[in-house]
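### Sample
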Amino acid sequence: MASKDAQKQRSRGLPGFLPGAPDPDQSLHVSSNAGNQGRQPGVPAPNTFLSTPNVPPGLECLSQLDLIIIHQQVELLGMILGTETSNKYEIKNGLGQRIYFAVEESLCFNRNVCSTLRSCTLRITDNLGQEVITVNRPLRCNSCWCPCYLQELEIQAPPGSIVGYVAQKWDPFQPKFTIQNANKEDILKIVGPCATCGCFGDVDFEVKTVNEKLTIGKISKYWSGFVNDVFTNADNFGIHVPGDLDVTVKAAMIGACFLFDFMFFEHSLAGL
């Protein structure tokens, strides 16, 4: 059976998600019902998106999670002074239990001059304070008029070991991004709506296969109410993906949430 499934996967042109993973016939391990958790009705079970037992240290708590919640902490000092402060995020499971904490490292000059385009590093630690994921964001452009130097993130897990990238793709109408492995090979696409203002509703970025024919999940920016959206810069995100999706891809999607927050939803009271 494994051999037939692998042949089907190759015929569909769907690459594996773990960089350098061995042949699927030899070492893939899949939960029989994990792919059904959180799956939308009518969407086929994503049996081509498989996890492996080789989980990077610190990412074990992402295994079998089909919902990851990211809550940005309110920075009152920045609101009062009208300046950009370092972002901080709580990362929780579907039960609301905190599994990680993320802190932005960036220069004050970059935050206030480059604003949402600033280069920075986000360090993600577990509940013991051990850094398990590092997200590096260089200073790059964010315009449909400059297709050669668009946004990109590098994801390391553990720190020092690159496991993937999030890269913006040029499109004149919709926000489009790809999740890439360590070799910069596209493995998933993320397609956002034409308008990301999120007035009185959630903003959904659909997670699709590379050919965009199958939607396997979504990244949502939750609407938190008029007062919170206008007078604070605290955003809430939800990552809905198959439970058996590779943990390194889930880590890359956490990085994608940070990138979307910077690009589309970052604001302060002084900027209104």
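Confidence is low (pLDDT under 50) at residues 6-49, 268-272. This sample (Phospholipid scramblase) is used throughout the tutorial notebook.
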